[in-house]
Design brief:
CATH architecture: Orthogonal Bundle
Structural class: alpha+beta
Radius of gyration: 17 Å
Distance between the termini: 42 Å
Order of helices and strands: HHHHHHHHEEHEE
Number of helices: 9
Strand order of the largest sheet: 1-2-3-4
Strand content: 5-15%
Number of domains: 1
Shape: globular
C-alpha cells in the first residue's frame, strides 16, 4: 500500500519517536532535532527531487524519509542512522507500506549520517543535502553564551537555504553568517565532512555543489 506523507506526519508513533529522539539530543547538549528540523529536512528533500523532475511518488517517499530520518536518536546518538532505518522499516511495514517503498526510505535514513553514509539513491542524496544544509541559530539550545564551536557556528548562521538550479547544473547551500559571532573558517572546520558528503550527493544528480556565505562563493 502507498502511504501518503500526511499519514506519517500525523502518526502518533512517529511523532512520539521524534519527540523522544529530540529529548535525547537535548540531554546530550546537541542542537534542536525536533519537528521543526524534521519538517525542514522533509520539505528540502522533496524540493530537490521536484526540481530534478522526480516522480510525485518518489518526492513523497523523500518527504517521509526526511521527516523520520533522526528517530534513531531515541535509542542512541551513535549509529542513529542505522537504528533509525530499522525502526522506520518496521513501523512502515506495520502500516502496510509496500516493501519496496519501505526499503527505499529505510535505505535513505540509514545512509544520511556523514560518518557512515553514502548517496545510494536519489532519495538518499536529497535527504543528505536537505539535512546537512539545515544550519541556523534557532537550533541552538544553549542560551548561556558558554558555547562550544558547534553552538557558536550554528548561532552565527542567521539564515540558510538549499537551491537546486537544474539549468545551471548547480545545487547551492546559501547562508547568511554573522561573522562577529563565528568566522566562515569555523564553519568549514566543523562541517567539512558534511560538505564533502553534500558534494557527493550533488554528484549523484550529475550536478555541482556550490557553497555561498554572505554572497561570497566559497566552493
Amino acid at each position: 500500500m502507498k502511504i501518503p506523507f500526511e499519514q506519517i506526519r500525523t502518526n502518533p508513533e512517529v511523532n512520539a519517536l521524534i519527540k523522544s529522539a529530540d529529548k535525547t539530543m537535548e540531554s546530550l547538549g546537541f542542537t534542536e532535532h525536533s519537528y521543526v528540523h524534521a519538517g525542514i529536512v522533509s520539505n528540502g528533500a522533496a524540493e530537490v527531487l521536484s526540481a530534478i523532475g522526480a516522480s510525485e511518488h518518489e518526492v513523497e517517499l523523500a518527504k517521509i524519509a526526511g521527516y523520520m530520518h533522526d528517530i534513531g536518536n531515541m535509542v542512541n546518538r551513535h549509529s542513529h542512522a542505522q537504528t533509525g532505518a530499522i525502526l522506520a522499516y518496521d513501523l512502515l511495514r506495520r502500516l502496510d507500506m509496500d516493501i519496496d517503498d519501505a526499503i527505499a526510505i529505510s535505505g535513505a535514513i540509514g545512509n544520511h549520517d556523514e560518518g557512515t553514509g553514502n548517496a545510494i539513491s536519489a532519495i538518499s542524496a536529497a535527504l543528505i543535502l536537505a539535512d546537512k544544509s539545515d544550519v541556523r541559530k534557532s537550533r541552538v539550545r544553549n542560551k548561556t553564551q558558554d558555547y562550544d564551536i558547534h553552538d557558536r557556528v550554528n548561532s552565527a548562521v542567521e539564515k540558510s537555504s538549499l537551491i537546486t538550479d537544474t539549468d545551471a547544473g548547480i545545487i547551492t547551500v546559501k547562508m547568511t553568517i554573522d561573522t562577529s559571532v563565528s568566522s566562515v573558517m569555523d564553519y568549514f572546520e566543523i562541517f567539512l565532512a558534511r560538505m564533502i558528503m553534500c558534494r557527493k550527493a550533488a554528484d549523484f544528480f550529475d550536478m555541482r555543489l556550490k557553497i555561498k556565505a554572505n554572497d561570497m562563493v566559497l566552493l
